Records
---
Amino acid sequence: MRFLLKQKTFMNNPILNPENQAENHQQPQPEKRESLLLNLAFNIAIPTLVLTKLSGDEYLGIKLAIIVALSFPIIYGVRDFFSRGKINFFSALGVVSVALTGGISLMELDAIYIAVKEASIPALIGLATLISLKTRQPLIHTFLLNDAIFELNKINHALQLNQRQAEFDRLLINASWILAGSFLLSAILNYLLAVYLLTAEPGTQVFNEQLGKMTALSFPVIAVPAMLVMIGDMIYLFKGITRITGLSMDEIIKQK
């Protein structure tokens, strides 16, 4: 669920494809901005309240409370798909993560399976970030270096003019390692939080309450530290690009 909290923009990277510049005769409409308040409500606040307050037999009961609580992130992911008209990777990943959590909880498997699941998803993304360095489309372009943030045409032109593409490539490799580190940090914190909180027997009201507490703490304990590392990586990219290209910060940042 916590992956839905991160800011995300997934698109093809045009920085090494000058032919994409010819497609800008008709300016595309800006993508509808996501509501952070709605995101937090559907992915954290409502599931937490349902699990912690409505799991008793006088309300929804243990299993129905799990189903109701986890349905809200799924509804949000489906709504996100229809509002954007395309699959958002993080929303899709969030739906899968929630479905796995629900399945493990409803089958009353040991809590260690939830801890492993919570850690494995960010760990796999971090690993994929490093593996993608060997491909034509490194994930650093998807996560950070995209045309929602940067003036890629100006950067590309300056790199060709200054003949410093090799230095720029090394910058992206370093930034990719920092990005992978943020996902590794998230994986470790996910695992530790789940192991620390999920101590009750699965299939009990106390377990549901602990699952709700884990959901509530996921943002301050996990998302915030990982986001701080990612912000540091973005600053590293900003400084590196301005140094290599000779462009100012105002010139490389997309102006609204």
---
Amino acid sequence: MKIIKFYSLLLFLIVGGTVKTIAQNSQETKEVKDKTTPILIGVKAGFSLGKLTNSTDNIYTENYESVSGIDFGFTFEFKITNLISMQPEINFTQRGGKRTGLQPVTGNELSDQLNKFFPFIGMPPITNENPLYATFESESDLNYLEVPALVKFGWGNDFRFSAAVGPYVGILLKATQKTSGESQFYLNAEGTNPVFVPGPDGLPPYTVLPVQSLEADTNIKDDLKTVNFGGIFALGASKKIGNGEIFIDARASYSFNSIQIKKDFGKSHIGGVIFSLGYALQIQ
């Protein structure tokens, strides 16, 4: 009888110890899991509406309208608390602006030819400060690799609303000035004094230069700063799906520095509004 009681007591202690150990391990696992920072990696693609904003009174940078483009990239979200996350990104985005109508023409082959005989007839040379004018369409097509570092605030569980703010750095990948149309060239901004050219021997009578084509794609990357920086403000919403979430994002961005290198061409700042759709997968 004493032996039976001894084994019963021993069995009780073994079972009790096992249950206690399992409970402790379960609690420790839960605590470790609770301390683990959730990480989400996502992809997104969307539509951008870029804008060149003129910050000076300069003939080369005024009256630009918005242009549309594409925006896509990767997001990396590190949740600090249920409210606050850090969200760095890597994005390709198209920026730029479009201008239509009578506008200045930067130095070209025609300017060089006119400057060969203008001084002999008392006319001022064609320069960036005293350019030719024509009526045409001009579009700046700028491609950037942008790296934002956002602080994100979110509310909700299965369905969440969010707001994010932070700086970004942009690296210029490609810059093209696309011009199109046909026009006469003028010596004044009002378009009332057409360009005239001398006869074959370089002497009078002078004749008005005929209408010229302005179809061209010009690489202007060397005229612009390679790096720009600015700020972003975003609003979004997300819905959990499986081990991740689908999200929509609307944001506005604005560069703090001007993009031109030469002061002759004024100061323009890149801005834009972007609408994106994406999916983020939780990997931890």
---
Amino acid sequence: MAFRISALILAGLLSAGACLAQTPPAPPSPAQQQAPQIQTGPIDRPGAFLLMRNALLALDHANKANDYGVFRAIASTAFQVNSAAKLSDIFAAQRREGLNLAFAAILEPRWTVEPQIEASGMIHMAGAFDVKPVPVLFDLLFTLQNGQWLLFGLSVGLAQPEPQAAAPAAPAPAKAAETKPAASAPKPAAPAPRPAPKPAAPAPAAAPAPEAPRQP
């Protein structure tokens, strides 16, 4: 076994010597120096969940302690232009509201922007946690720095209630119909006096029939 290890070490030394003896490569041409193209497209959900969770939980701890030193330190260099004092001012309203982000450790958000690498080379994701009484919205950007995806920017806050349609104005109460005494119906005109009926003319009395002659 010891011989084998020595042989491997020796082979390594020989390889190193061979590399040193080689002529250094020519500098790359301008065409070879072109930056590699960014692979855009969706990223896997578990990886996106870890990035989202770590960022929101770090912010949650910073808000509760009003100490943004660690939160700032684990973000990207571009994000660190914000001092800890400035971050304290930025998130003062969330501390007053008592914004709670601890549920980000266990809840799967409702994605409104699917986690993806955009043309800028940054990971972008946005979503909402449908918690009571008010949903929490977030929008996150991560940049690749030293082989790690680090926080570049974020926006977190409570969802604003949707404006409700104005209720139609209540109609003015209808006035009660005034009950006036009904106008007395005009009395029917008295019928014109009819002429008294004239007595019927007596029928002429029938003449008595002549008596038949008597026989002697």
---
Amino acid sequence: MSVTRILAVMAFVLVPSVSLSQGAQVAFGGIQQDTSAPVEIAADSLSVDQQDGTATYAGDVVIGQGEMRLAAPKVTVVYVAGEGRIDRLEATGGVTLVNGAEAAEANQAIYSIDAGTITMIGNVLLTQGQNALTAERMVVNLKTGTAEMSGRVRTLLQTGTGQ
């Protein structure tokens, strides 16, 4: 590969990293998620706290809703007071989110059911095929199938040249 071509490829990879440092919107999952679909949770244990209206699942927690899967060591389900319906899910301890052919990882995630958003926080890594994006925060809009990343966004785009 010539020096000119190497510099062109480097510019292509580095420019999005600089221009996206304040925030970037990307496609996520390629599908729109029905946030009213049933939520299925599997875990090693469950602890319910009637006082604060929460249920905490621990140990290899896997949550499924439609095509989406979320896995974490611990997930707390917060219910709407007096209504018995889920307000949000709070996943901690290292979270993996898979939607369609794409996957994201972060330290923690908050799934707000009514808003139809998943906010991933801390060391976010989004993979889309061979491309990867990192940031400190990513908000996934499940209704539109898009995500917004912020906090020092970095992008690695594969050019497919193979040389």
